[in-house]
Every structure is written in structure tokens, then in C-alpha cells.
Sequence to fold (88 residues):
Amino acid sequence: MTIVELYLDDQTFERIKHLAARHHGTVETLIQDLVQRLVAIETTADPLLGMFAQEPDLMDAVTAAAMSARETDPLSLTGGRQTKSMHT
Fold:
């Protein structure tokens, strides 16, 4: 086990103590639980979308291009005729 010393402002520390008491634990168990939850979130996150997390403008452009293509080139055909999309 490693001993860690943290410097926190009083308001943050009071919030941590309150959360720990509300969850019937200690500050140490609260921090351990939070770290475990964050690790679980990171390991279950979509790795493909995660690759573009720092590129929001690129993702906006890709999404806009996909939506434009969907409007001009529908994916579904019925009896040789295009079906109307519910979104247009």
C-alpha cells in the first residue's frame, strides 16, 4: 500500500468527506471507488470514437458529410422505388 498526501482546498475536502459519509465509507474508499469507476469507463469506451476525442471539428465534418450523403443517396429501395425517410 502507498501513502499519498494531497493538498485540497477546504471546500473540496468537505465535499469529499460528505460524499464518503453519505456512501457509508471513508475518504480512502471513496477515492478508490472513483478510480475503479473511471478505469471501467475508459475500458468500455468505444476505441474508434475515442481516437477522435481531440478532433471535434473533424467529427462534425464527418457527421455532416454522412448526413448529406444520406439525403442524396438513400440506403433503402422498395420495388425499384426509393422510400421516403422519416427524417426528411
